[in-house]
Amino acid sequence: MATGPYSIRSVEQDDQEQDGSSLTGHPKQEEQPPLKILLFAFMIMFQGYGAMNGNPQQLLKGKLWPHGATHEQSIAFATATASFQLAKLLMRVFQIAFLVFIQPNGIVYIAYVLMATGMCVPIIFVWFMGITDIWVVYLQYICGGVAVGLFEGTFLSCISSLGKSTKTVVIMGAPLGFAVNNIVIATFCSWGLPTVSYYVWSLACMPVGALIFYTYAPAAAAPGSAGGKGCGVFLNSMKKGAEWIPPMLPWFVAKFIGNFVLEDAFPLLLNVFHGYQGMVPMWGGPTTTDYNLTISLDHYKAWYWFVMMAAGDTISRRVPHYIKLDSAMSCAFWILFAIAVCVGGESLNWLLIPILTGIAAFISNFGNGFIYGLSAKFIDAYIPVEHHYAAYNLWCFFGDCGGYAGQGPLSVKLADSACEGRNYTYMCYHPPPKVSTSTLLMSGFGQSPIQRIV
Description:
Blueprint: H1 38-50, H2 54-64, H3 71-94, H4 96-99, H5 104-128, H6 134-158, H7 164-170, H8 173-190, H9 197-216, H10 231-239, H11 245-272, E1 279-280, E2 295-296, H12 297-318, H13 328-347, H14 354-382, H15 388-407, H16 409-419, H17 437-444
Antiparallel strand pairs: 1-2
Helix pairs in contact: 1-6, 1-8, 1-9, 3-6, 3-15, 5-6, 5-9, 6-15, 8-12, 11-13, 11-14, 11-15, 11-16, 12-14, 13-14
């Protein structure tokens, strides 16, 4: 079987040929036991991320416009929150400037500080000072986006020397971080806990995450760590891109789609479940009008939708540990499978059935988490170690592009399309326009008293 510079041979294979094109990996290293405590360092950063999505994001919008946002204000808010994704993807590129002065481990600490700053913004300006201008949203979300942009790929490359088992455990921290805010704290808020608690809790955890990383992550100079990956080595990886970028291209596409589905899920959910008295027809369909078949939207999100989302995203990140990527054919199959799961799960939302919407969250986020775990496994197995830092950050960059598309104005249009032409009591609800008394007299003169203008 012919092999070229982009042929792949699994690290678990011997010299025997396998079906499909072979993949050439670097030598297999003895696997170390997972250092599970680093999961919490990763999770804490994503708690901050979670405080800028889902329930906290919607509550912030309600704090800015307590009487409800107009369509134009919703567009402005979506654009402001999408600055998170834009800042995140730009930092994948511009962090090279930081590498001139600081090692990757130092960038992780800077990320914790920036996320803590992002948590302080709504606490101080919105809740304490009462400022409701849109610039506050931009400031908060840009700080958070820069933090995650610096953090994610850098953190993963810094712990590469600890082995695949540690990384497999650590990446489960991302959905768990979202779950802390949107399940645990959301439940307490529904019982009366002040909503600012989302930000206070995440802010308090940031120093803990930094301390865990400082204590347990490999030192910058440790063999096989990211310690030598400064500006020069990053640029060298890009100069030698022909050695590792071509086999990464399918993973870039998959990451784009996975992040798009993840970020689009929140505006889609909140637009569809916009009904009378904030209730969801949990035990019925969109045409349900029986109040006894409903539950509150807060409980639907915290106890069902976000549970399904977190379960799908978390479980799927562990699954690739049991899958072999021993040929180009197997890689192509699993990439297409993951993309199909993402798209198929997302499409179930258009059925407007609350039970299925939760299942859609599980399926689509299973695809997203599966892409994450599978991509990390591929990079560790087949991309030379000296290119890990560049590979992880370029891979994250494409994911951020998908996230920006999924959270920006396009998300509002997609959310609107789910309810287009449909108006129900508890879903896609649009109240009838208010009509003045004079208008009623002018237009309704001579009509029966029971006739109304809708």
